[in-house]
Amino acid sequence: MTTPTPDIRLVVLDMAGTTVADGGLVEQAFAAAARRLGAESAGMLDHVRATMGESKISVFRQLFGEETKAQEANKAFEEAYADLVDGGWVAALPGAREAIEELTSQGRTVVLTTGFARTTQDAILAALGWQDLVPLTLCPADAGGRGRPFPDMVLTAFLRTAAADDVRQIAVVGDTSYDMLSGVRAGAGLVAGVLTGAHDADALRAAGAGHVLESVADLPGVLA
Q1: Which superkingdom is the protein from (predicted)?
Q2: What single DSSP character describes residue 72?
Q3: What is this structure's pTM?
Q4: pLDDT per position in the chain (224 positions), as tens?
């Protein structure tokens, strides 16, 4: 028996890998940051890949331990990623903007979230011309600083938009296991993975995805 789709009123979408093409930019920026700090990036990249979707400062704390070093690494990463954005390397995934506009036309509220710092998130939004596309965008610092896989950004979107009466009216969509975990932990009624980013279908399902989509472009049809 097919489970009916919940009455979704709030859609929380990840950015890099879900609505924004990643193209290895996170790894490039990390390698640039490691070089600046005189660290060997090769042995750290596996950890970076495994923790895609997590708050970047959290990842650097895991890698470098010392808070000062982690902050320095995070600053170098954000600067390197900003250089890539300024260089025109960021693009929307095919159909992403159209999907967001269709979800909005269906009467749903869309929120964009990221594991990047606010300055980087704003630079990406500006590069894409998305500053006014959705009513709310969130980074980890906007939700207490923990980021994914904690449910904080999802629950902050729920509280700040007041678009839904129940967490089961939330859909959480992303390309990483941590996106899925954050949705499950928030009690979202629909948790969906997309195959345009970091993790494959098995990893997404293992982390709690109830749906796995080829891309976010398929989401309006699923909800309709």
Answers
A1: Bacteria
A2: H
A3: 0.86
A4: 445 567 999 999 999 999 999 777 878 888 887 777 776 666 677 777 777 767 777 777 877 777 887 888 788 888 888 888 888 888 999 999 999 999 999 999 999 999 888 988 998 999 999 999 999 999 999 999 888 899 999 999 999 999 999 999 999 999 999 999 999 999 999 999 999 988 899 999 999 999 999 999 999 999 98
